[in-house]
Amino acid sequence: MKLDVIKLDGKKAGSVDLGEEIFGLEPRADILHRVVRWQRNKAQAGTHKVKTRSETSYSTKKIYRQKGTGGARHGDRNAPIFRKGGIYKGPTPRSHAHDLPKKVRLLGLKHALSAKVKAGELVVIDEASSNGKTAALAKQVKDLGWKRALIIDGAEVNADFAKAARNIDGLDVLPTMGANVYDILKRDTLVITKAGVEALEARLK
Questions:
Q1: Strands 12-17 and 2-6: what pairing?
Q2: What does pTM read for this prediction?
């Protein structure tokens, strides 16, 4: 499929051919859900922790004698049934990550790109370059109507462009290898440079 290429000033800069096997698929919500869930679980810190009865700060002395009180038999106040006692089988630090086949992850990226094309939210630009000035780039972004946009460049992001973009609210810049399903779906507009298109096609073929 053909898509128009524009410059950051809004002027046309020719067109580009997008591969149907990457940008022309029928998006599947189940695959996108699986990949996003895998990403978010992998990113989860998993540092939640409760104290067990061996870690609470009560005395370890037996609270009263075993027999003769008429009450239930108990050891110390750290038992889980007591207020401020230890927690039984509570959460401990662990990884929430789970495996997902590489083929499914790559397929998810293809479906995310195809979903943006189908929704009319994919923009191809000639190149992502700037003089390093945030104000100038912010004006260009505003004129283009990008409010929440992700820009995917080639193998490396232009240093001046990254510097100008880092303080613009709602604008993210990633190299091709950083392109992922969650960030693509999270943004309203996906912007890819011509170098980014070539690198993505090489990565996903």
A1: antiparallel
A2: 0.82
Per run of 10 residues, the mean pLDDT along the chain (length 205 residues) is 88 88 94 97 96 93 95 95 94 96 96 95 90 90 92 90 91 94 95 93 89
List the domain range (segments joined by +) for residue 23. 2-45+97-204
CATH number of the domain residue 196 falls in? 3.40.1370.10
Using CA atoms, how far apart are residues 189 and 123, in angstroms rounded to an integer? 7
Instruction: Give CA separation, 43 vs 77, 115, 141, 182, in Å.
Output: 38, 24, 30, 11
Helix, strand, coil percentages (3-state) for the chain, rounded to 5, are 35, 15, 50
Residue type, 65: R
Instruction: With both helix axes pointing from N to C terminus, report the angle between 194-204 and 102-118 in degrees, rounded to the nearest 10.
Output: 140
